Amino acid sequence: MKKGKKKFHLAQFLVHGPTYHSIAMWRHPRTDWPDDSWRRPELYQHIAKVCERGLLDMVFFADLNFISDSFKGSLDPALRYATQVPEHDPIPLLAMVSAVTSRIGVGATFSTSYHLPFYAARLWATIDHLTGGRAAWNVVTSLNQNQAANHGQAELDPSELRYEKAHEFIEVCQQLWNSWDEDAVVMDRQNAIFADPSKVRRIEYEGRFYSSRGPLNVVRSPQNGPALIQAGTSPKGMDLAAKYADAVFAINPLAETSAVYYADLKERVAAHGRNPDHCAVLFGAQPIIGRSEAEALEKQDEHNSLVPIEGGMALLSGHLNFDLSNLPPDAKMMDRTEPELQRSRRVYRKDDGESRTLEEVAQRHGESVGLPQFVGTPESVADQLEAFFDEVGGDGFMISPIYCPGAIEEFVDLVVPELQRRGRFRTAYTGTTQRDHLRQTD
Ligand SMILES: Cc1cc2nc3c(=O)[nH]c(=O)nc-3n(C[C@H](O)[C@H](O)[C@H](O)COP(=O)(O)O)c2cc1C
């Protein structure tokens, strides 16, 4: 057993829907759920229990509140190929998965662009109470024109403006969470004092975009609001993460470029006067596990061949807010200069430094949204995760399955014990809250 090496953090990526990063998942022969399972709580409750058995930091639900017509100006490909469509609201599920677990963190995405901060502060403080301090909010600013249109906005705000609003949004939420002191509730039955009025105050926030009078009508929650996650990749997104986030979710297939991203983010965290260890970077990973190397490679081929290229194009067009049907399939993506195409640059480069073509990028997008596939026996997958982790510097991985729930069970039952044997993953939770798990080092 290797001793003294930094341990991983592990989170399980989920969506309240039939497809995750793999758009083939819903029709993969090993996705052996009844057709309506993905709409029912039992599937997610089962997964959360499996992940808690594996001592993972959290189960995490992504969320997109639109059906994309970005590809060819039509909803047809998104609906036909289930390109992260449909997506039911994940927030109610947090309460349902936390009810059948006791330690694992429960996280979900919630956009700052189409809600008011008071509602978000109240919602997330409530979830933090209901989960006993296990809540995590992935703060996103949204990315597609259809989201703006669904919420009554003619145009998607430019990225910079969305982030300026997000800063203020979180600021209001934090002030609302702080509007109740920790010891405000006294519950003095004898003297008929529920809360000490001197320990609850208005916030009187007047900002550029938002105002709120406060106080919140939710008492201070176990983590004083949820743990915060961020997933933006632009410098503005990284700055938002650096200022507030307890964890960052990043997609970066190459260890070399991941290391650059990791160092950059940690520097930004330090520049905000925060401890860089208090913002854990989790890199997306899609494990494909077999009893032998040959079986794993066969599983990879089988899975990847189930991805329709037009589905990959539609999914990528939606994520980029750009109609890729206007480009030739053999376009070299690293040469493209359109501003919308720059956000995914990190997945355009092959290992040898050459550019992928549009068709290659779209295919990979449908397979894994650019997450690297770690293929092999449990020992070999653990080797590959360790090698990536050691080259990049840490802090862990967001694991995404190719079929469900079997691939999650395999990872927990076969790879997690291997990582524990190598001293690279915890053998017990030492804390009780989401933030405790993200900061646990032993
Ligand atoms: C790994 C990753 C996961 C994301 N997950 C979501 C999500 O679940 N829902 C969403 O609306 N946006 C999601 N986003 C979008 C970002 O939060 C952000 O709004 C978008 O990337 C635009 O900001 P950027 O230019 O800083 O990347 C994700 C982005 C990345 C990189």
Task: Describe what you observe in this structure.
This protein is α/β, with parallel strands linked by helices and 442 residues long. It has one domain (9-307, 370-439): Luciferase-like domain (TIM Barrel, Alpha-Beta Barrel), CATH 3.20.20. The chain is built from 14 helices and 13 strands. The chain has helices at 41-53, 76-81, 91-99, 117-130, 145-150, 159-177, 235-244, 255-271, 293-305, 309-320, 358-368, 378-392, 406-421, 434-439; strands at 9-15, 58-62, 105-111, 135-140, 185-188, 193-195, 205-206, 211-212, 227-230, 247-250, 280-289, 373-376, 396-399. Helix 1 packs across helix 3 (91-99), helix 8 (255-271) crosses helix 12 and helix 10 (309-320) packs across helix 11. Bound molecules: flavin mononucleotide. Flavin mononucleotide binds next to strand 3, helix 7 and strand 10.
**Count of all domains:** 1
The CATH class designation is: Alpha Beta
Q: Which compounds are bound in this model?
A: flavin mononucleotide
Low-pLDDT regions = none
- Please state the overall shape, judged from the principal axes of the Cα atoms: globular
Order of helices and strands: EHEHHEHEHHEEEEEHEHEHHHEHEHH
Distance between the termini: 15 Å
| Count of individual helical segments | 14
CATH superfamily: Luciferase-like domain
- Helix share of residues? 25-40%
Report the structural category: alpha/beta
User: What's the average pLDDT?
Assistant: 96
Major sheet: size, sense and barrel closure? 8 strands, parallel, barrel
Query: What fraction of the residues are assigned to beta strands by DSSP?
Result: 5-15%
Counting copies of identical and different chains, the oligomeric state is: single chain
- Total strand segments: 13
What is the fold named in CATH at topology level?
A: TIM Barrel
Query: Rg, please?
Result: 22 Å
Strand order of the largest sheet: 1-2-3-4-9-10-11-13
